[in-house]
Amino acid sequence: MNRHFIMSAAAAAFIMLTGCADTTELGSRAIIQAAAIDFSDGVYRVSALMFSSSGSGGDVVDASRENVIKVCGEGTTLSEAIDNVSLTDGKEIYLSETKLLILGSGFEKASVTDALGMLYSEMKCSLNMPVCCADNAEEITELHFTEGITSAEKPLSIIENAERAGISPKTMLLDVLADSAGGKSVIIPHFSVVDNGSSVTADDSGLTAVLDGARIVSGGYLGEYFNSNETRGLMLLSGKSSEITLNYRYNGTERTCTAYNIRIDKGESGLNVSAGFRRRNGGRLPEEERQAALAVLYDMIQSAL
Amino acid sequence: MTAENKISPQQLFCVLLMSELSSEIVYPVSSTGAGGEGVLAILLAELIRFALALPVIIYSFRGNAFYAAAYRRNRFFGWIAAVFAALLLVGAACRTLLYSAEFTQRTVIAGTSAAVIFVISAAFAVYAAVKGAEAMARTGVLFLVASGIITVAVMLADIPYMSFSEIRHYRTEYDGLFGDIVKRVLHGGDYLIFAALLPYVRAEKGSAGKTALFFSLFSTLGSILLFVFGIVSLREFYGHTEYPFAAAASLSDISLFKRLDGLGCAMWALCAALRAGLMLFGAYAAIKEITDCIRVKKAEVREAGA
Description:
- The structure holds 2 protein chains of 2 kinds.
- By secondary structure, chain A is α/β, with parallel strands linked by helices.
- Chain A folds into 2 domains: about 25-225, ATPase, nucleotide binding domain (Nucleotidyltransferase, domain 5, 2-Layer Sandwich), CATH 3.30.420.40; about 240-305, no CATH class.
- Chain A is built from 8 helices and 12 strands.
- In chain A, helix 3 crosses helix 6 and helix 7 (about 230-235) crosses helix 8 (about 285-305).
- Chain A starts with a helix and ends with a helix.
- Chain B is an all-alpha fold.
- Chain B has one domain.
- Chain B has helices at about 10-25, 35-50, 55-60, 65-75, 75-105, 115-130, 135-155, 175-185, 190-195, 205-235, 245-250, 260-305.
- The longest helix of chain B has about 45 residues, at about 260-305.
- The interface between A and B is medium-sized, with 28 and 41 residues.
C-alpha cells in the first residue's frame, strides 16, 4: 500500500510539475482573441486583438467595453509576423484561445493551407477555431464592437447565427486542413465593412461588419467569391444545410417561407430539386405558391453551380 | 529490484491494456495508415503478434513460469529465450521512452527539451520497476482508469465535430499496408511483458491464459476504437498529423477544463512511462526466472552431495 501511495504521489508530481517547466504568468501572456492576416507584396501583416481588461479602464472586465487592444506585426513569413506582434506588445503570444481567424484577400497568392498548417502545428491554434475572410482583414479588427465580453465575439456570433439560418458556413481550421488534404474545396464566410450600423461599435462612425457571401479555398489558395444567394446554394449543394428561408414575390405581393428536407439530384437529365415548404409560422403553402417557392430555390441552387 | 509481490489476473489485464493503448497514442502515426487500410493493419498486426506469442499463451493455461519451463526443458534454449526477451524488452522500453518524450514535448510542454523529459520519464520508469510488480499493477489500474475517463470525455466532447457520412471517402488503396503492419508489430512488446509477469500472477490454473485472450480481444478493439475516433474526428487530416489523439483532443471543449488535449496527453505520456517501467521489470523478471532455476538446481545438488 505504501509503495502504491509513493508511486501515485510520484506520478501526480510528475504531471503537476510539467506546468513548472515552462511557466508564463497570465499577465505576461498575450491572449489573442481574434487575428487578421493580410498578405501583400510578399509581406504578411498580422493584426491581433488581445484580451485586455485594462483596455476598459481597470482590472475588472466591463462587458460594455471592447476589452481588447490591437497590435500588429509584419514579416516575410507568417511566423515572423506573429513573433513581431510579440515584440510590439512585449508579451508571449498565446493563440490556443483564438476565437476567430480572418484571412485577407492576399491569400490568392499565398498558400492558405501552409499558413493554417503552421498556425496549428507551431502556434497551437485549436482545430475548431473558425476561419473567415475579408478583402481587407485588418479592417475587421479595427471595428470596436461593444457587444460581448470582447469585441472579437461579435463577428463570431454573426457567423454562428448565419450558420444556424443556413445562410453561410461556419468553417473551422480543421475543415480547411482536412478538405484541402482530401483535395476538396471548402467555402469560408466573407465579411465586408459597411456603413449601416449605429452604436454597434465604440465609435460613432456607423461602420460595422456584414457577412455578404463566401469565398472558396481550392488547391490551398483563396479562390472565387460567391454572393449571399450563391453561398446559400453552395450550402445546400455541399449538404451543410438542408433547410433555408426563402423570400420572394408571388402575385405581386411579398411572401416568405421555409424550405426543408431539400434534396438535390444532379443527374444526366439536369438539376432536380425537391423540398417541403411551410410558412414561417408553420402553415401550409398552396400548391401554386409552392411551385413559385420551388422556382426560387431552384434558381438559388443553379446560381451556385 | 525488490518485489516478489503477486498481482491478480484482472490487474495483469489492466496493465497490459494500458501498455498497448499508451503505445497507440504516443507512437507517431505513419501518413499512410488511414481508412480501411488502418483497420486491416490493426487486425493483421494483432494476428501476427498473437501467433508469435502463441507458445506463451498456450503455456499460460498450464503453468506460470515460461522461461523457467523452457530452461528445464533445454538449458541453452531457456537462456537464449530469457536473454533475447530481456534485450527486446529493454530495447522496447528505450523506444517507448524516446517516443513518449517526443510526444510530451510536442503536445504538452513545447518549451522543454525532449532530453530532459526522457531523463525524467526514464527515472520514473526505473523507480516503478524497482518498486515491483504489485506496485506497478496497482498504479497501472489507476492510470488506466484515469486515462480512460479523460479519453471518453474527449470522445464525447468531440461528437459535434465527428463526420461519419464521409467515411466512405477515406483511403482504401492498401499501398502502405505492409509498412503499417510491420510498424504495428514492432510497436509490440506487451506479450513479452505478459510472459515475464506470469510468475507474479496470483491465480488458479488457466486464468492467466484467459487474461491473454481477453487482452488480445480488448486491445484490438481499443486500438480500432482510437483509430476510428481519429478518422471520424479529423477526416482527411488524420494522415497529416503524427499524433491523431492529441489533434482530436484539441477539438474538445468542455466548459470547465476547456481543451482536454493537455491533460489527456499528459496522462497517456505517464502511462507510456509506466509501460517502460513494466518492460524494464519484465527484462529483470525473465533473467531472474533462469537464475532462480540455477540456484534451486545448485541447492538440490548441494543437498544431494551432503
